[in-house]
Design a protein that fits this description.
The protein is an alpha/beta fold. The protein is built from 14 helices and six strands. It has one domain. Helix 13 crosses helix 14.
């Protein structure tokens, strides 16, 4: 059984671009400083497993090894995995087939069956639960950069901190309007190959450290499919912009202590609404390292 693949899948959100601060369009590793405390670093990751991400880049690793603490978006544990799975399922008489129709349900089941999910299990998933898995088809093959950092930190017995609690992550998706969940899932099922290609291009842009290209790819996708633009805008606000505000605030707990290494999704670094710009508004200085 590979249900763990579902539990570990994370969303790379399709998003409309925010107006970019020209300084925050390229670069994955940033030095964050403020008078009176030791500098910290913020590293943008991508929540997928790929052979090209099998090793943390040497320049990043060298700085990580000097850090006194690690802060991630989320620290998984058995309870949070179980709780997240529970939240992603209908616990009453509702079913996925009722929400998206028999034809789209069959398509969803065919996409998820290879990772070991039964028809009955898939039929109890909420649309957002299916969407998370469709955006990360390889499931838990390999280790993401976040997982590699967490393993190294535990080996070093570094203090560990998380930005979000499991209930906050659940809220991001579970309070997403059902009509938007259904519309985005149906669209994803109908344009599966195009979305997989978008994922491949996004990874290439990430490996190049090109934050602007990641956003531009998504903007181009929405232009090709204007019928989902309103739903994508809701997704962008909930998954990216709203969370970036919370992240920038909570990161400061460790920034005030100094010498922290903070890793979060690269989408949150980009532009005038990203965490780097928000930190500068609060009196920090952000300088690109890599």
């Amino acid at each position: 059984m590979r249900r763990r693949a579902f539990l570990s899948a994370l969303l790379v959100a399709l998003a409309l671009p925010a107006r970019a601060d020209p300084r925050f369009t390229r670069g994955l590793l940033w030095r964050i400083s403020r008078n009176g405390v030791a500098p910290s670093h913020v590293y943008g990751t991508i929540h997928v497993a790929d052979a090209r991400l099998a090793d943390i880049p040497p320049g990043v690793l060298a700085i990580f090894e000097q850090a006194k603490s690690l802060m991630l978006e989320f620290l998984p544990d058995p309870y949070s995995r179980t709780r997240f799975l529970e939240a992603a399922m209908f616990l009453d008489s509702q079913t996925l087939e009722q929400k998206i129709g028999a034809e789209d349900f069959e398509r969803a089941f065919e996409h998820l069956r290879p990772i070991g999910l039964s028809r009955e299990f898939v039929n109890k998933l909420k649309p957002w639960g299916v969407l998370l898995n469709l955006r990360n088809p390889d499931g838990d093959a390999g280790a993401s950069l976040d997982t590699q950092l967490l393993r190294r930190a535990r080996d070093r017995r570094m203090p560990l901190y998380q930005i979000e609690e499991v209930e906050e992550q659940i809220f991001t998706f579970d309070e997403f309007p059902m009509d938007s969940q259904v519309a985005l899932l149906r669209h994803s099922l109908a344009h599966r190959e195009e979305l997989l290609e978008l994922g491949r291009q996004t990874l290439e842009a990430y490996l190049a450290g090109d934050l602007s290209a990641i956003w531009d790819l998504r903007a181009a996708f929405v232009r090709r499919h204007p019928g989902i633009a309103a739903h994508q805008a809701v997704m962008t606000k909930r998954v990216v912009h709203d969370r970036s505000v919370v992240m920038a605030f909570r990161m400061q707990r460790q920034l005030r202590r100094g010498a922290a290494f903070i890793a979060l999704g690269a989408l949150h670094l980009y532009g005038a609404k990203g965490v780097l710009a928000l930190l500068e508004q609060d009196g920090y200085r952000a300088e690109r390292v890599l």
